[in-house]
Amino acid sequence: MRLLADLTLPRPELLTVQAENLALMRDAVRRSRTCTALHPYEGSLTPEGLPQVPLTSRDRLAEWSMDPGTPNRITEGDIRLVLRSSGSSGRVRTLLHDRPFNERVEAIGARGLCLDGLGTNPFVLNSLAPGDLFGGFGFADAVLSRRGAAVLPAGTSMPAHHLAELITDLDVGAMVALPGYVERMLTEIPAEMQKLRTLYYLGERMASPAAEALAAAGCAVRSFAYSTTETGPIGYQCSHLSGADHHVHEDLVIAEVVDDDGRRLPDGVPGMLAVTVLADTGTALVRYLVGDRASLRPSACPCGSTAQVLRIGARDDVSANLIGTVVTRSMFDTALGLPPDARYQVAYGSERGLLRLTLRGAALHGLTDEAVRTALGRHQTLRKVVGSAVFAGLTVDAGTAPRITARAKAPFFWSEEDGDDRA
């Protein structure tokens, strides 16, 4: 596989490299004894034929990951890393990554990381959660090391006052963390957090008052990478992109925005994001639905990259079963008139067999308990919950940030029985 030093080639040349890498993948699949899932479609692994290959769902990948034969594996052996997806966007999936794939993941991540404003050999806090078969911590460590940073492997369990001392004593320039962890640290050590020159987020998007507070203090808020456990890096932010926009690593990734039938949508039209990772070893992922909605547009970026710009939208809907009724985030968004990326959480718990809800997050500012209950009661599905004989009421707490897990993720639906990891 040919990895470019950067993506500033004229676009026809960039697409030529992409086509060459796709051809290498097609040849590897054709030779493979194990990649039986793609054998019927190997002839369509071309730039023109790719839309003829069926989409790969997360459920399908989960089924393959439990199969000892793993029918989407191009080559056998040379397994170097076993990771699991978090399951936050579907069933948990177990991935067997080989050495060439890991090396590409690290190289692509390092190529896309923007260090503007940090100088040489900056101190960077790796405040992602290590272990539990999740790869974010190791990915950040490897990428930062490749770019010459001095990495502080802090994780998520270091006491806040120790973190504050490190930031001050070592003049730490940047931190890599999930948004929920950033929110917590801004509450506990606000002065030190606002000394950072760059805050890199990974996973969820930083679309919250936390990002505004950091930006107001002169801290650049940037995506570390748009990446998934299954695919590795998909996109990156140069210094000219922010928020949901990322250049696509088009030499080794093909991104498509498709409708429900798998047909490609025109530039600028949002749909489901399907990703093909170009590889000639390890696992084959073709037209994989990562669980995000997105849109694509041509690049006219001052950085000189000719790679398409991918704008990430909302995640696929999440659901919970409340007293026998399946409810989704989009139902609450619709009922409360909130956008899909609003930062809030619906917690549920039982009191003597009765259901009680607590809605937390700054996005709820100005909403009263009664106003929320009335709004939910007008929704055709949510009314079944708030109108039930076992519904004990709800509380709106706009002043409290959403609860986060030990990995600093903030699930939209939070079971109070699971407890709070602060304890």
UniProtKB/TrEMBL annotation:
Superkingdom of the organism of origin: Bacteria
Domain AMP-dependent synthetase/ligase: 143-275
Listed InterPro entries: AMP-dep_synth/lig_dom (IPR000873), ANL_N_sf (IPR042099)
Pfam family, one: AMP-binding
PANTHER family: BLR5969 PROTEIN (PTHR43845:SF1)
Protein known as: AMP-dependent synthetase/ligase domain-containing protein
Organism placement in taxonomy: Bacteria, Bacillati, Actinomycetota, Actinomycetes, Kitasatosporales
